[in-house]
Amino acid sequence: MVNKENQQLYTSLNNGKKMPLLGLGVYDMYNREAEQAVLWALETGYRLIDTAEMYHNETEIGNAIRESKINREEIFVTTKVNNSDHGFDKTLRAFDTSLQKLNIDYIDLYLIHWPIKHARKETWLALEKLYQEGRVKAIGVANYLIPFLNELESYATIVPAVNQVEFSPYLYLKDLVDVCKTKNIQLQAYTPLVRGLRMNDPKLQRIAKKYDKTPAQIILRWALQHGISSIPKSANLQRIKENFNVFDFQITQEDMSFIDTFNENLRVVEDPMDLF
């Protein structure tokens, strides 16, 4: 169920936790740049901030959250287990370290960043322990394509709340969308804007012109109307605002179906299946 609130769209995760559908990704941002991007995003209206231990900016993200003076309960914070921290005990220690760096009372969503071979089960069971102890509000996975989800189902006692994957109109993983809906897992897209590689696509530009929006806004709106969360990354104030300005229009079903045909299986990040 999706509802509108302060312009932002929210979804209810499978444990009842409310999560904004649109957020800010902070990959490849460091020091004051990371803090400033988060401050700008929160001022703009974003309430979902996605970081990871691997990004080496958890301290800065926490600083920005406190500097914003926005009530902590209004901000949804995601971070992730680094590849080097897989395993039951190492994951528990990694969570403590992330919480300390962020310097916040709790984490809203904790994800397995990549499905590393031989340690997926132990890492997931550690996340279940953290959740059962109430130390994190929701747990999930990232880069889990269908074979990984099927494997997870064989030992998990908790269904992941979120599955964060590379996803865009040019990497339209329709089968994964359907599986996640069936399993009641919220799909979340990273690199939804394909790092700018397809902004000059004449098909996309034609639709953008029709709605008097930018190509990036069309892509993000397309994802929202599919019920998919997106975390576009930007440290540029103008783009941060542009990416958030997607709540005042609707793409027609005809145009949604047309955008669905843009798939090229285009990846800008490694294929998770190389790890299976």
Give a short summary of the structure.
With 276 residues, the protein is an alpha/beta fold. The protein is built from ten helices and eleven strands.
Give a verbal description of the structure.
The two termini are 33 Å apart. This protein has one domain: NADP-dependent oxidoreductase domain (TIM Barrel, Alpha-Beta Barrel), CATH 3.20.20.100. Helix content is 38%, strand content 17%. The protein is an alpha/beta fold and 276 residues long. Strands 4-5-6-7-8-9-10-11 form an eight-stranded parallel β-sheet. Strands 1-2-3 form a three-stranded antiparallel β-sheet, with no helix packed on it. GO terms for molecular function: oxidoreductase activity.
Instruction: Tell me the overall shape.
Output: globular
CATH architecture call:
Alpha-Beta Barrel
SS class: alpha/beta
Provide the β-strand percentage band: 15-25%
Query: Number of DSSP strands?
Result: 11
| N→C terminal distance | 33 Å
Fill in the CATH topology: TIM Barrel
- Structural domains: how many: 1
The mean pLDDT is 96
Strand order of the largest sheet: 4-5-6-7-8-9-10-11
Summarize the SSE layout with pairings.
Elements lengths: L1 E4 L2 E5 L5 E3 L3 E2 L5 H14 L3 E3 L7 H10 L8 E6 L6 H15 L4 E6 L7 H13 L3 E7 L3 H8 L8 E5 L7 H10 L2 E5 L11 H10 L3 H11 L3 E2 L6 H8 L8 H7 L17
Parallel strand pairs: 4-5, 5-6, 6-7, 7-8, 8-9, 9-10, 10-11
Antiparallel strand pairs: 1-2, 2-3
Helix pairs in contact: 1-2, 1-9, 2-3, 3-4, 7-8
